[in-house]
Every structure is written in C-alpha cells, then in structure tokens.
Amino acid sequence: MLSLGLGRARAGGHELLCLGAHSDDLEIGCGGTLLRLLAEERIARVTWVVFSGNAERAKEARRAARQLLGRRSGVRLVQHAFRDGFFPYQAVPIKEAFEQLKREVRPDLVLTHYREDRHQDHRLISDLTYNTFRDHLILEYEIFKIDGDLGRPNVYVPLSAATVKRKLSLLERCFGSQRDRRWFSEDVFRALLRLRGVEGGASEGFAEAFHGRKLVI
Questions:
Q1: Which residues pair with 27 in a beta bridge?
Q2: Minimal CA–CA distance to 27: which of 67, 58, 55?
Q3: Which of 114, 194, 199, 216 has the CB geometry, 3.0–4.6 Å to 140, for a possible disulfide?
C-alpha cells in the first residue's frame, strides 16, 4: 500500500484548513487524523471553521476544538451561525464566507465533508470547498448517520488505540447536546474506525478514511 505524507513544509510548517457544517462534524470525521498530524508533522497554522451553531452548540464547538488542537499558536477558530438544516437556502452568504476564507488562508491540506453525503448542509460545504480551493489537496471525511450513505473511501489514516481513546473521550465530554441521537454513541464510532482499520491494514486495527478525488504525485 502506498504511503504519502504532506510533503516538504513551507517555512514554519504546514497550514491546515478544517471545515465542518456542524459543531461535531470535524471531531467525528477526522479528529484522530488531526491528532496524528499535530503530533507528527510541522503544523504552523490551523484554521478551524464551523458554519452553524446556536449558543449551546457553538460553545461545544469551541470547547472541543480547543481540547483537540491545544493552545498552540497559529490556531484560529471561526464560528458562523448559519441555520442548521437550511444551508442550500442560505447559499449566498455561505459562499461569501468561503470567498473571505480564500483571501485569508493558503492551506496545504483542506479537510471537508464527503461530497455524496446525504445531509444537505454537508453537501453544500463540500461543493463550495471544491469551488473555492481549486489547486489544493482536499480530503473528504465521512460521518456515519441513519441515511446509509457511507461510500467507498480510498485514503486511510491508521490510528493507534491511544488516539482512538482520546477521540472517543473528547466526543463524549464535549457534545452533550447530541447524546440523545441514536447514532451518537461510542460503539458506533469505534465500529467505523475498526472497519476502516481492517480495510486500511492498520497495525493497531483502527483508521479514519477519506475520499481523495484528485491527487497529484
């Protein structure tokens, strides 16, 4: 299996752009990968953007991002308040938010939603990611839901058992507003990580998976 890194970092380190429609999306979809990148790569800057959230969920988003990313310099949290579930009907101001981001960041890696996700908010964020960042490495993370919309990913990031434990603990601690949802549970999250770990040949049996639609080697 071919292993690829982020390549040679610019002066100071790599820049990451992390895009999530809702407060827990990034932590669920790529939290373990981010923990690995922060531990193993020279990361100079992280721009972490959440596009929706009432007062409670916005507070959860800030708490979780700080716990995952730490208090390192170069981290910027951006919290928007677009209406959850209505993104396609608010597309103009969301597009304007992307245009503003384009002027502010030069990411080496963009993490965004899976383009075929059945949640309308997730799809719009993915579409606008590709519309805005045309010459960048983009990886689409996956989120298990009741829609049965998991795809066939082609990029795997193996995770240690310790990293999985940190990720699952963070989800449990930080997102109390979501605990009543039948898919928001440790066994569901662990099951998907285990499945992707088998597919990706991970040495400790766990991985997060992504869709890489265009990769230049």
A1: none
A2: 67
A3: 114
Q: Which H/E stretch holds residue 78?
A: strand 75-82
As a whole number of angstroms, the distance between CA 125 and CA 114 comes to: 9
**In the chain, what are the domain boundaries?**
14-211
Output the pTM of the full model.
Answer: 0.94
d(CA 114, CA 212): 10
Q: What confidence tens digit (pLDDT) does each residue in 112-160 have?
A: 999 999 999 999 999 999 999 999 999 999 999 888 899 999 999 999 9
Predicted confidence (pLDDT) per residue in 188-199, tens digit: 999 999 999 999
Q: Are 119 and 147 in contact (CB under 8 A)?
A: yes
HSE at residue 8, side-chain half, CA atoms within 13 A, is 2
pLDDT per residue as tens digits for the range 55-81: 888 898 889 999 999 888 899 999 999
With tokens 């071919």, the residue in question is 2
Cα within 13 Å of Cα(203), Cβ side: 2
Which fold does the domain 14-211 belong to in CATH?
Rossmann fold (3.40.50)
* Mean pLDDT of the residues in the chain: 93
